[in-house]
Specification:
This protein is α+β, with helices and mostly antiparallel strands. The chain contains twelve helices and 19 strands. 52% of the residues are buried. Bound molecules: flavin-adenine dinucleotide (FAD). The site of flavin-adenine dinucleotide has 34 residues, from strand 2, helix 3 and strand 9.
């Protein structure tokens, strides 16, 4: 049995023969160059085998380094160590008066692990977290350290890299001046009202999350910047403001949530749903997510509503979020604004896996791209249709890692770079 343990959800035991914690860059380079098969482990929050290997697993938490900041006119670039979590980064940025454009529902994840899979938050004007990346330092499988910047032709292909290109030792993130946010949860939004005012609801604030069990809309989380015009605090498209903190998962402890009830707070204490230091979400769960071009959002919602009786028995909560387009090859928002359709499942993997093909078939007419870090059953052929730049990414993998050291079963199923 491997000593590498399991992923966060506990549905995967990593199969690595050895786990390493290099303390210097030179030690890491030697390790990578000498390894037959090697992967980096971030914070283990993916629900599939994307980070798994049969060879050497590298954890970067002993490779300590400072965050280096390059200040610009109205923000700048932060160079972040390859093993750092958002929770460790955001406090220091905020203390210096800076902010990232957006965060995911949890700050517990590593910056590199999150941006490697196209992780996102919400907000029609906000891109994926990957779209804030403006530099990568990578140890390739030959042990060489290379730096990629947006001026390099490979850059747009290398940001959402699925762990396939090498070990990212530092990542550059764009930041901006700090801002404050208030979160209000609304109850009682109807499907009719959402579908009639879809764009107005989605764009009503900096970040909007619509929660559903697919029979009805259960909650809407509205996160407004205090320096921007806010939705009416009492009435939100006919929904009423909650008067007590509200969890999206029935019966889960509200202590784990960031503050609600319209209380203003710094960006990093409001944009995630879950607080550092607490178990995010439920803990006992699986997740899947699909992205459709925003113009197909209403039709895709209709297709999933027609499967509500199939989905609801396995579901803890569904969440709808919008994400702005980017040009990163494997980003779920590559080339188009998207609606993200998220599922927090009960921890019954066989039943979830049996249902996913039905969901994927229902979303196929709308081009439903799966989240790289969650459970999906989409075939390699379909992935290539959904992610049109995947063939170019395959070539990039072959160029940067010609000996296939970062290859694993996940990449063989999805990217299929090596025959
Ligand atoms: C409770 C919960 C809530 C979530 N909420 C959201 C959400 O709001 N939005 C969303 O989009 N996703 C969400 N996710 C999914 C999560 O953001 C992704 O799965 C993310 O990729 C996890 O990051 P990680 O650091 O745990 O990466 P890991 O799972 O550890 O690794 C992911 C990949 O990155 C690679 N990698 C990691 N570090 C490096 C490095 N330094 N160099 C090279 N490769 C590296 C790994 O090899 C692997 O291929 C959630 C997950 C959980 C468990």
């Amino acid at each position: 049995m491997s000593g590498a343990g399991t992923n966060w959800a506990g549905n995967l035991r990593y199969g690595a023969a050895r786990v390493h914690r290099p303390e210097t860059l030179a030690e890491l380079q030697e390790l990578v160059a000498g390894a037959d098969r090697v992967k980096v482990l971030g914070s283990r929050h993916c629900f599939n085998d994307i980070a798994d290997t049969t060879g050497d697993l590298v954890v970067l938490d002993a490779l300590r380094a400072e965050v280096d900041v390059e200040r610009g006119e109205d923000g700048g670039l932060a160079w972040v160590p390859g093993g750092m979590r958002y929770s460790e980064l955001v406090v220091g940025l905020a203390e210096h008066g800076y902010a990232l454009a957006n965060l995911a529902s949890l700050p517990h994840i590593t910056v590199v692990g999150a941006t490697a899979t196209g992780t996102h938050g919400s907000g029609g004007r906000n891109g994926t977290l990957s779209s804030s990346v403006a530099g990568l330092e990578i140890v390739r499988s030959d042990g060489e350290l290379v730096t990629l910047t947006p001026d390099d032709s490979d850059f747009a292909g290398a940001v959402v890299h699925l762990g396939a290109l090498g070990v990212v030792t530092r990542i550059g993130l764009r930041f901006q001046p700090t801002f404050d946010v208030r979160t209000t949860v609304y109850l009682g939004l109807t499907w009719d009202r959402l579908l009639a005012d879809f764009d107005a609801v989605s764009d009503a604030a900096y970040s909007v999350s619509v929660f559903t069990d697919w029979h009805r809309i259960t909650q809407v989380w509205v996160k407004s910047r205090t320096d921007e015009h806010a939705a009416s605090p009492e009435d939100f498209f006919g929904a009423r403001a909650a008067t007590a903190p509200t969890h999206m998962l029935e019966g889960a402890p509200v202590e784990s949530l960031t503050e609600q009830l319209g209380a203003p707070g710094a960006w990093h204490e409001r944009l995630p749903h879950f607080r550092t230091g607490f178990t995010p979400s439920r803990g006992e769960e699986l997740q899947s997510e699909y992205f459709v071009p925003r113009r197909h959002g209403r039709a895709a919602v209709g297709a999933l509503r027609s499967l509500a009786d199939r989905i609801a028995p396995l579901l803890q909560a569904g969440e709808l979020r919008t994400v702005a387009a980017d040009d990163l090859w494997l980003s779920p928002a590559q080339g188009t604004d998207v609606l993200a359709l998220h599922f927090t499942w009960l921890p019954d993997e066989p039943a979830v896996r049996a249902l996913l093909p039905e969901i994927e078939a229902a979303l196929a007419p709308y081009g439903g791209r799966p989240h790289w870090g969650k459970l999906f059953t989409t075939s390699a052929g379909d992935l290539e249709r959904l992610y049109p730049r995947l063939p170019e990414f395959r070539e990039l993998v072959r160029r940067l890692d010609p000996r296939g050291a970062f290859r694993n079963d996940y990449l063989d199923r999805t990217v299929a770079a090596f025959g």
